Please model this.
Amino acid sequence: MIKRTLSEIVNMSGGSTINIDPDLMINGFSTDTRTIERGCLFIPLIGANFDGHEYVKDAIAKGAVAAFWQKDHDNPPADCNLIFVEDTLLAMQQLATSYRQQLPVKIVGITGSNGKTTTKDLVASVLATTFKVHKTKGNLNNHFGVPMTLLSLEEDTEIAVLEMGMSERGEIELLSTIAQPDLTVITMIGDSHLLQLGSRKEIARAKVEIIAGLKSGGTLIYNGDEPLIDEVLQEQDVLSRDMNRIRFGVQDDNDYYPLHIQMKESGISFTANKLPNTSLYIPLLGAHNVTNALAAIAVAKAIGVSDDHIAEGLESVQMTSMRIEKLQADNGLTVLNDAYNASPASMIAAITLLHELEGYERKFVVLGDMLELGPEEEMYHRSIGSLLDPDQISMVFTYGALSQYIAEGARKKFSGQHVHEFTSKEELVKKLRAVVQPTDIVLVKGSRGMKLEQVVQSLLQS
Model:
């Protein structure tokens, strides 16, 4: 956590003060009065439905020693230590960049349409076998979250693994410029954000923005199975940049690719071309996670982690929740919880995984809407329904307005009594509980806005 004198904070953030002790020590920061710790800096951010300036006096009363104050706000409290700035968010971002520049830390920036959180967890776990590592917590991966993560770094942090998300062009460029990474990773190009960006190539352009802040001599590690990334990199004239490129993927023309893959009940064993004599295991389900693991291996090898430590870190990874968690209900029912988010690519991966799993009496799917897919959203939902295999899946349950098209696609292969549409989670759970048995498995997946974790919790308590 940042610890600097008031005068240093002022200089680093581009602010100004009036009659305040410049040697006053600032220990940490907060943007929420519920998390105030004594001696911290309070940063009053402004959102669509809130203005942190309303809580400055409360923050000071709770122990903050100073606060930012945006100059266009009237009536600054006279009895508070204030740092006046043009914009509190921009000042926080500038402060974070200045702090990052002062630390001897390496930054790994990770983006991609799918798999970035899983890859972040894998990278951090592998690197933590050798270095002191800090990684993005929760969903702090935007223009608020990335600077907060940087300001949270301890002085002796050796590597920070930062997830970088986006919803439109320019966001990844901003985050990369703030963080100034030493290594960057692009996991894949999917269909998320088609509504905002219009095409997969435009999504690729948005993801490649991660090289905007890449340090001279830095490394871009990216999915070589996706030709759009190479196409967009040619537009960026990367050959003129002092930058290393490493490709990973399933195809054997990549720098890192798998040799042997064996699916197990609770994970995957595999070997990789650059570690041919090392047995690797990840406690994750789904063949697509081998690709995420290859990205982590590429990062680790670039930084100098030994093969044995790579294997150790992959096997001991602690995952962020709601990303294909394999859970057990009270009655023995197996639930695959993948309710964090959904896109066509991640839906296909989850359904493929369910098809591959063995040892269950019957398989069921609960699929919710995939959001932000643009004018082709009906087609994408129908295509997911058409992928469902009645030889593998006993029943299809859908939830949401768009998911009716999943049901429509599924009915081309399934009989009517095996496909059920719902607009009520309570009715869905009631019907599902009536048919599932302890020897069955249920996949639950949908976009975050559908809140299908509520279905998961209901099933676990059945």
About this structure: The two ends are 43 Å apart (CA to CA). Residues 325-460 form a domain with the Protein-Tyrosine Phosphatase; Chain A fold (CATH 3.90.190.20). The mean pLDDT is 92.
